[in-house]
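[Discussion] Sanity-checking designs against the backbone

I'm trying to build intuition for which residues belong where. Below is a structure token string of 331 positions. I'd appreciate it if someone posts a full sequence so I can compare it with mine line by line.
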């Protein structure tokens, strides 16, 4: 991307693959981004193996800032996750909460991906946690299928003139409790918040589910094969439908030669095995603490193990702990 104003750093590690395309085996590198963009490049030349378009994006209204007028968008694989947000995307557990979400979304500038930060506040969709975050992707070389878990959560970015910070705090109590980038030496203080609220029910999202998914993409064609919700964020005894709403997630997946994907990451604390061909959940177990980590697998004396570090995540509000948990099939 050009001129990052959004905290859209490339957090995920790239994947090196050999891809059969047009009858040739091409050494490639696959890069996944917080924007939900996946770039597949010839790793010897840097040339994209799929079309990429430079598209016009919104301009900045902040004095002294000149946002780049275009950004690169991969045509294939098509961008994944939320790619823009309006009042029609508002959500709530009750009609009153949905109206509250509509009103909140309506207060901010929202012109799709790459809406620049502004004084009135701009909606980042996707937000700075992705799309694809540090969790990264995994790849099955037998099938040329790429798998990645993503977040579907929007952020709100606001620029406050430094000399008006005290005034804003008086007029809008609590605004300074949001994430703050002091940006010393500049005229502005950055505030970042997210489109959810926290109460006795936990993190209650204000945009439509799913809020986290697992996605499979065929790198022969660039087409998405399937996408399924990942985990849950609310009490599924009280709201059984929350099982299909997905969860904000941090932690990567691995894919095995036995057509399995192992993945934890979600807020509900479960470690799951998915069918890599369909996305169906085949097994799940509750971890002793949040599984915000990427699992690993190894073989010892002819037996295969799957291991994950379960330590929790403070910002995600999952159960904290200090565990290393190993699983294997019985003999």
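Best answer:
Here's mine. Compare freely.
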């Amino acid at each position: 991307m050009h001129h990052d104003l959004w905290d859209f750093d490339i957090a995920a590690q790239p994947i090196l693959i050999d891809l059969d395309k047009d009858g040739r085996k091409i050494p490639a590198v696959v890069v996944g981004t917080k924007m939900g963009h996946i770039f597949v490049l010839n790793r010897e030349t840097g040339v994209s193996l799929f079309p990429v378009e430079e598209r016009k994006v919104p301009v900045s209204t902040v004095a002294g800032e000149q946002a780049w007028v275009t950004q690169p968008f991969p045509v294939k694989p098509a961008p994944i996750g939320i790619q823009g947000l309006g009042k029609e995307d508002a959500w709530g557990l009750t009609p009153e909460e949905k109206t509250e979400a509509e009103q909140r979304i309506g207060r901010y500038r929202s012109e799709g991906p790459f809406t620049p930060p502004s004084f009135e506040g701009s909606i980042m969709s996707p937000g700075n946690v992705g799309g694809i975050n540090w969790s990264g992707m995994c790849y099955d070389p037998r099938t040329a299928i790429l798998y990645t878990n993503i977040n579907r959560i929007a952020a709100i970015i606001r620029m406050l003139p430094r000399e008006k910070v005290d005034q804003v705090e008086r007029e809008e109590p609590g605004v300074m409790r949001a994430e703050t980038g002091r940006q010393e030496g500049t005229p502005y203080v950055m505030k970042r918040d997210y489109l959810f609220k926290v109460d006795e029910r936990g993190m209650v999202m204000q945009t439509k589910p799913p809020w986290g998914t697992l996605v499979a993409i065929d790198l022969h064609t660039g087409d998405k094969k399937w996408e399924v919700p990942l985990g849950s964020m609310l009490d599924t005894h009280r709201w059984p439908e929350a099982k299909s709403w997905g969860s904000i997630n941090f932690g990567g997946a691995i894919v095995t030669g036995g057509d399995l994907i192992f993945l934890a990451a979600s807020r509900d604390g479960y470690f799951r095995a998915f069918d890599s061909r369909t996305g169906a959940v085949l097994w799940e177990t509750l971890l002793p603490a949040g599984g915000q980590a990427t699992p690993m697998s190894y073989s010892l004396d002819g037996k295969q193990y799957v291991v994950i570090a379960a330590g929790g995540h403070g910002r995600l509000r999952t159960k904290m702990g200090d565990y290393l948990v190993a699983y294997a099939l019985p003999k």
